Amino acid sequence: MAEKNRKRAYGCGEIIELSDGRRAIRWREKHVDAKGKSRTRKRYETLGKVSISYAAKVLNEKLRKSEVASKVHVPVVTFKEHAERWMRDILPNHKPSVRLGCAGVLKSHLIPRFGDVTVNDLSQIAIQEWASELRERNYAPKSIRNYHGVLSMVMNAAKDWYALERNPAHGVKLGRKKLVRKKWALTPDQARPLLGRLALKPRTMVALDITTSLRRGEIEAVRWKRLEDSSDGRGVLTIVEHHYEGEFDDPKTEDSIRRVIVPAEVMALLQEWKRVSKHTKPEDYIFATRNGTPERGKNILRRHVYPACAALGLPRADWLTFRRTFDNWCHKHQIPAKDIAEMMGHSDVPMQFVYTVGMEENKRLAADCLGKELGSLNEQLGRIGQFVPNSSEAVN
Question: What integer pLDDT is reported at residue 360 of this predicted model?
Answer without folding.
Answer: 67
